[in-house]
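One-letter codes give the sequence; the fold follows as tokens. An example follows:
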Amino acid sequence: MHTIPQRLTALRQAMQQQHVDACLIPSSDPHLSEYLPAHWQARQWLSGFKGSMGTLIVTHAQAGLWADSRYWEQAELQLAGSGITLMKIQTAASTQHLDWLAEHLQPGHTLAVDGDVIGLAAAQALQSRLDSKGVRLRTDIDLLQTIWQDRPALPQAAIYPHPAPFASTSRRDKLAAVRQAMQQAGADYHFISTLDDIAWLLNLRGADVNYNPVFISHLLLSPDSATLFVDSNKLDTALQTELSADGVQLVDYHHAKATLAALPVSNTMLLDPRRITLGLYQAIPATMPRQQAINPSTLLKARKTAAEAVQIRKTMEQDGAALCEFFAWFEQVVNREAITELTIDEQITAARARRPGFVSPSFATIAGFNANGALPHYRATAEAHASIAGNGLLLIDSGGQYHGGTTDITRVVAVGSPSAEQKRDFTLVLKGTLNLSMAHFPRDTLSPMLDALARAPMWQHDIDFGHGTGHGVGYFLNVHEGPQTISRSLPDASMAMQEGMITSVEPGIYRPGQWGVRIENLVLNVAAQKNGFGDFLRFETLTLCPIDTRCIEHALLSRQEVDWLNHYHAEVRRRLQPLVDGTARDWLLQATKPI
């Protein structure tokens, strides 16, 4: 089964044998991760579409893939000749595939989806729509298991400790903090499946997932025990002994369901309904009382400690120095040598790899020249990429995983001579970045409420952008971390801004077929002032890299904005200059001159 049509035929045969009329394949795994190990790349294997998000539905007569606007161009190319129709949706949160199912399935039909990889909330929404149509939902089978004969095995990367001084809080203290939250919730057990929560809580890291230093596992806590469901072969004897001393017992990864099923029904389970799959939820005894709330570890790890902030600032200096080396190289070769968007990824990763503490990129580098920069999640491939030459704007969104933190930065730089229109867009985006970066706000402000600050300068010119303005960032963990998000999302109490949270600030302007602009820094919530009006926070900008002043239309900036930018560049120069030399130092000094 080397072709997509052959795989679809095999799936339909399996559906017929199981008396299934439709099959839904989400982009998901048992941990609801953003990046999936190859073992759970079922949607990609069956469709050929390699985007990170998308939902595939196959019936006996039709097949459709629902993807948002970030992936339309990529999906149309990769689905060509597959027999799968691209179903265009506006956002990843769209439920249009539910509408399609309600329209095309008839009473008495059966829809199958693997309950082990569909989130509880998504499954409940699906069940509600199907019930109204009299359609049966089966979640007890994985139809691909019977046809995906060369399915990759589960990843086997080694698990290793995240030690002091990088981990400033001990494993015992973190476990104690979560158990205190369990006690306050009246819970006897707490089950965690999200990999970054487990890695943070146990001060462990791994390499089972691209870009995120996590490992495949589940964790069950009680007041006096911790059971880590994991392949024990991935931990050496010394680490197993260390975990045992802290009360962490190792049990085979595949035994999580059976362990949950055997729990005493007289006790209460604490779980996060947005961070558990239907299959695991159903494994818990039906009569066992449940407290549903956000994982305590999600809130705890979002609030970086003062010691972690020290490490993060050091990491930002090393990352900034790497970027100085990269941009110095870029200025020497652009419009002089043949380079492509692929070259950017190679060079920027190599520059970071030369820095102490670097582990890996934190996501796939986005390097988009002119029209490609207008695609917010564009990724150059060997089959489709642009040469960088002539005039215009190059957008580079990249980041690194270091033992002392996670970085994520977007810069747009001039290639040749940018046009007046390009400079105008660049400056409006810069104003949005600065407007939010200078904000002071009361502690506990719900993060989506800050979104308009970044959009306001663009709204004044009847311009907007379709993605969120900011996401939480982990500490040598996932580059996309909750609970806070600066976006148009409906806010909930878990999104309250607290001291120590790290968030991106990344407004943009995208002109399809022409160019794109996005300027992104990471910011840290720090104390501002406490007075009769409340307890206020402000943002400390963590990212250290010059912003290309050649792209600025100076007349559009206020005196306050000019002062902020000059102060920022002075700080970048002060902290990075000791870490670079030669052409990188020369580039830094030139790029940070005041305007």
